[in-house]
Amino acid sequence: MILTEDYLQDLLDKTLPQVRTGDWAVVLEGSIAEGFGNPGSDIDFLLIGRTKDDLPTMPSLFFVDGRRVEIRTRSVHQLAEQFAALKTGAKRVGRIPEDLLNRCQRLLHSYPLRGHALVEEAKGMLPVERFRDIAAAWWAHCARQSLRHALAMQCLGESEEAVDWARSGLVQVVKSWAAGQGETYLEPKWLSMQLDRADRPDISDRYWQLESAAAEVAADDYLAACLAFAADLGVTGVRRTPERLTVERQPGVTTWQAAERVHVIRGRRDVFALGERAGRVWRSLVLGSPLPQVLANARATGTREAGSLLAEFLRLGLVRLAWKGGGTVTPALPLASPPGPITPPPSTAQPLLSLRGAAVTAPDAVDLIPLPAERFGAATLELAFSNMVVENAREDLAGALQRGQWKVAEVAARRAVHSALRGLFCAYGVSPLPSDSDLVRRLSLLPEDTRPIRALADGLTRLTIDSAERAEAVLCELEDFVGVVRQAAGADAFPSSFDSADTWRATLELGYDWVRVAAHFDSQLPLQEIRDLVATSGAQPHQAR
After folding, report:
1. Which domain of life is it from (predicted)?
2. DSSP character for 459?
3. Which strands, in side-by-side order, build the sheet including 67-75?
4. Which of 182, 242, 476, 500 has its CA 20 to 30 A from that of 327?
5. CA separation (Å) from 391 to 417, 419, 482, 484?
């Protein structure tokens, strides 16, 4: 240790009065107990008691004689559970939580200060030699995952990322080897001192040469050198064979296509809209195939960014990588951010939705829609349904005008206005919708460039029709209004639903895309009859086939 026992005992005497009373055994753990540390290092005391209560995991921090003193507490039964969990986890080391491994390591390598018999009892729950094997296997697993991921990134042309993961794997390889030599402290910042104590200059020198060469050597050569070093230090399962990597389905990920837009839904919550090029690459995927073949299929679509897009699908957790015979590839950096798919900032495209699908920012975009999947399904379905109601209201209006039914015409016109506005709100992701009576006022929720629509809507909702001349003027105003709103909401290509059998069929086909999404997420449907559209796969329910 870099501090004397007398100094530590004096520091403990001054700290304990600030801690709740108890019959404690005390150890010093952490970097100073390991023989590392410096004047800025914490003094880490672990207090062990025989109490039956579960003691808090959170440490208390004190400042004594200019030193930062951290106090943790653990009962004997909590330590027993801790070591038992580690032994069980050793059967599948990849599932051992980093914190569990760290807690066990710190106690096993701690320096006893008080209650030596209880400390020995606690340490005796797991032999140090057994812990070395577990720690070495855990680091080897981490290294294997990092290097396999590096191999995948290099295959996809993401060289910088490949080098970074190879470099991470390199640290993990050496930590695995060092753990086998008894240097089990987890924190990588002390690796240089651990290698010095291991006294193997051949390994130490080779590691530092590779570490410093990361920015100087070509990515392909650097990865090859790291893989060779890993093999020499006994880390198996990382041969330079990208064919062993396969692209697999990610549980909880589904694909929905509307018109030309591909939507990928993750975990029944997050909706990603794929630009044209990204959609082509996604549709080219043959899951379960080797990564090089998947890449070749993606490039065959004519998409220059195929490798980068495949890498993005992996980062977002839309697909997963597996190693034949080795399970899913899950790279992680110990003592850093937890592994798992990333979630990018939500898309800024406006409006969010159209009948052609969610808006995207670029052809190769994989944009996160700022709506949960259920609201996405509900909003897109309402967008289609509201435009169908517009068509129905326009038909009612035309019939009323032919018969001079001015009051009927007024109601039909207002219905068309409100239905068009509902579609506009849905295009901007507003779901649930304001009531019809509040739609015009709530246009203030939408971006500034929709303000002209409010002025038009204001007049039309207050309209009166009392003559053929006035009816003709209102009809022209309404047609212009519907055109402006549909242009803003991406619904300008909506068919004239009730003009013919062909336009009705086109309406059903368009609505079917969105009904399926809404029904999948149990979104509230505007009419019960719409559910029948799913059952009939978009066809009329009574038509002979």
Report:
1. Bacteria
2. H
3. 60-64, 67-75, 43-49, 25-29, 111-114
4. 182
5. 11, 9, 10, 15
